Amino acid sequence: MRHILLSGLAAALVASCAAQPQDAGMSGQTASAAPSAVTAAPVPPPATAPPQPLTPPPGAMAPAPQPGAMVPPPPPRYGGSFLSVIGTPFLIAFKIPVCLLTVVVAAPVAGLSEISGSNAEGAEMREGLRDGLARNCGPPYSVTP
Predict the structure, then answer these.
(1) In 10 A of CB 106, how many CB atoms?
(2) How far apart are CA 35 and CA 142, in angstroms?
(3) Which terminus of the chain has fewer Cβ atoms in its 10 Å neighbourhood, N or C?
(4) Local structure of 43: helix, strand or coil
(5) What local confidence, expressed as pLDDT, does residue 7 receive?
(6) 78 vs 95, residue with greater confidence
(7) Is the dihedral of CA 93, 99, 102, 103 positive or negative?
(8) How far apart are CA 145 and CA 84, in angstroms?
């Protein structure tokens, strides 16, 4: 709407300037009122483009996500949360004895690996025992959906 109004005002300004007498030159004399042999052709109004929307369409101004930007996780599914609530007590009930059994087995084996003569094999065995203890006794402590 604003674009149409501005183009209409520009056309009116051009028409009013064409109707006023023009300077004959640098001397300051004005053109005579008598009709001259050369008449100015009427200036057609400027072509108007279709009106442009003042605001961009929705989503056009949204910034592009940065590479590596955090994307929010999708909302949890209801079946998964139900499984988490029901399954967590069973996980804890099974995790405690498995962890205790792992500690009972891993402690003497770690001691024996230290006593053995080869440090390379003993260090590799102790690393495996640490990984097993972390997997059997460490997180997660709840069922994840």
Answers:
(1) 19
(2) 99
(3) N
(4) coil
(5) 53
(6) 95
(7) negative
(8) 6
